[in-house]
């Protein structure tokens, strides 16, 4: 194992907010490579977040966001496990980021499982019609259609959208990072987006 310096641990802590021991272990596991250590910590954080995702989230907040022109607004219910976490600045900041994401990107659903089957079938029919003159074999067409569906999910499902503050992440990974930091399950329960003049 590579010898890890205090400076490396300090740098990794500043970049990730992780504890000293976690940073030391990550650097040891990655032979002192900071970028790989960040990935290592994120993977471990997401792994622990996955364990927490089965716990019930019945506390939380209703967060309201009104855009500066006062013609667009979002109401969001974001849940966690305890009132203590619901009152933290970290949790409120996450609620604000998600509400701003909804305002900017106008998702139709929270996750792909929320999309009615008939909507998915209609999308597939549209893709088939677009591709009918391509003369490609069925197995190739199926791959193209599945690729188009994945793109569709990333546009209409909040959790799969690229995060507006960092498009290298999606909203789901941002939530999982916060779960890892706060130690509680966090769930987007529901949202509504209002635009003046729209039904």
Question: Any overview of this molecule?
Answer:
With 199 residues, the protein is α+β, with helices and mostly antiparallel strands. It folds into 3 domains: 6-52, Orthogonal Bundle (Helicase, Ruva Protein, domain 3), CATH 1.10.8; 59-110 and 157-195, Elongation factor Ts, dimerisation domain (Tetrahydropterin Synthase, Chain A, 2-Layer Sandwich), CATH 3.30.479.20; 116-156, no CATH class. 54% of the residues lie in helices and 17% in strands. It has helices at residues 6-16, 20-29, 34-52, 83-86, 89-105, 117-131, 138-156, 171-182, and strands at residues 59-66, 72-80, 162-163, 166-170, 187-195. The protein has a 3-stranded antiparallel beta sheet with strand order 1-2-5. It has a two-stranded antiparallel ribbon with strand order 3-4. Strand 3 and strand 4 form a beta hairpin. The protein is globular and about 60 Å long.
């Amino acid at each position: 194992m590579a010898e890890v310096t205090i400076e490396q641990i300090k740098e990794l802590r500043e970049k990730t907010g992780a504890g000293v021991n976690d940073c030391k272990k990550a650097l040891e596991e990655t032979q002192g490579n900071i970028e790989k250590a960040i990935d290592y910590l994120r993977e471990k954080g997401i792994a622990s977040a996955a364990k927490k995702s089965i716990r019930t989230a019945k506390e939380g907040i209703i967060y309201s966001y009104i855009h500066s022109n006062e013609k667009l607004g979002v109401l969001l219910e974001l849940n966690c496990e305890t009132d203590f976490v619901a009152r933290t600045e970290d949790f409120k900041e996450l609620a604000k980021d998600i509400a701003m994401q909804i305002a900017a990107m106008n998702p139709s659903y929270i996750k792909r499982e929320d999309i009615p089957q008939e909507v998915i079938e209609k999308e597939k029919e549209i893709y088939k019609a677009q591709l009918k003159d391509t003369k490609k074999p069925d197995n190739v067409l199926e791959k193209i259609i599945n690729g188009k569906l994945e793109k569709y999910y990333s546009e209409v499902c909040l959790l799969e959208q690229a995060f507006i503050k960092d498009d290298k992440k999606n909203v789901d990974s941002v939530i999982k990072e916060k779960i890892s930091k706060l130690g509680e399950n966090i769930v987007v329960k529901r949202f509504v987006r209002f635009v003046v003049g729209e039904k």
